[in-house]
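Session log. Operator J.P. requested a structure for one protein chain; no other inputs attached. Running the standard single-chain path with token output.
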Amino acid sequence: MTEKEEEKALIVTQNDNVFIDEHLYEAELTQAKMEDYMRESEIYAGETDDVIMEDAERVMGKIDDILKAYLHWYEVLVACLLGVLAYRGPNWLLIFQLKMRKLEMENEVMQFQTIILMLMKIERVNVEMILEWLERYSNIFRDQISKCVNNYESGAWEALEEMKNEISFQQMVRIIESLQAAVESIPIREAFDELDTERAYYQDKRKESNAILISKKSMIGKVLGFAPMVTLFVDI
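Structure written below.
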């Protein structure tokens, strides 16, 4: 729009607002009455009936749009859903992060089990060597294992016990208890004699968890896929 067109449109809007503000909630308001109000107004002094009729029709259309503007049920539903998401979102995010952290812990412990299964077949391997290898490939438990390796010389069993107290993940605690048993009396191979069976069990359990997770993702994908079509039918 040019400056002149913009000024003209602004004047028209201001004139329309005068009649909208005065007669918006008037009962039984008709276009004929609006035309009468415009003829009586100084704004339309000297205007033709055609101009008044056209402007009255426009003003009545604006009033009709204003009166039809109300809160729809689906807008209330969306607002409630957004409120719940905003309120519970941080908690759900923490739960999600906790599950992902647990999966990472399971992966790391299974990696530790693989390393131990390889090292336990070496004749001269000891607990300190196993801890050093675990430290190299650790990520989540790196701080606890590094602290245990540093304190190992001052007391092997005590260093392992301190690490066990700092870790709450049960699968890792079992590995530490087996290391403690190897430190005290029995050979490493005997301390981890059930490790192969335990590792196979957790692998099967992980496969089952992954299958359930994939199934849930598939259901969510189907719901999201059908959501636009359902929304279209609701709008119709």
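Operator note: The mean pLDDT is 82.
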